[in-house]
Amino acid sequence: MDTSGYTDRFVANAIIGMVVACQAVILVRQITLWQPLTPSPAMQLALAAASAAFLLLALPPLVCRVMRRWRPPDPTIRQAAWRGRLTGLVFGLPAGMALVSMR
After folding, report:
1. Per-residue model confidence as pLDDT tens digits over 40-63
2. CA nearest 83: which of 47, 48, 56, 49?
3. Which of 21, 7, 13, 8 shows the shortest CA–CA distance to 60?
4. Which of 9, 12, 58, 73 has its CA 20 to 30 Å from the CA of residue 18?
């Protein structure tokens, strides 16, 4: 097993996942500031988590299916990508909440 390919794919997807999740939290907060009835913080977090989960977990397989891209033959490399996305989502949501609460 090539551990460098696994590590590279994991780290890259974890960083991208954290950035996407942080930006989803910030974007939802900015959008809800303009609403006349501001939703609760729990509802804002749920909306941000749902949008970030869609972007990180559902969108990449759909894009691969539409574009018919070549997939890596080694399942451990694909596993690393999925684990990296999940890790980025889990750590990105609290980081985004911390950034929003600092304002």
Report:
1. 889 999 999 999 999 999 988 888
2. 56
3. 13
4. 73
Residue 79 sits at φ, ψ, to 5 deg, of: -60, -40
Phi-psi region of 70 (alpha: psi -120 to 50; beta: other; left: phi over 0): beta
Comparing CA positions, the residue from 102, 91, 97, 103 lying closest to residue 16 is 91
71 falls in which pLDDT band (50, 70, 90)? low
Q: How confident is the model at residue 21 (pLDDT cuts 50, 70, 90)?
A: very high
22 within 8 A of 94, measured Cβ to Cβ: no
Asked if residue 70 lies in contact with residue 99, where contact means CB atoms within 8 angstroms, the answer is no
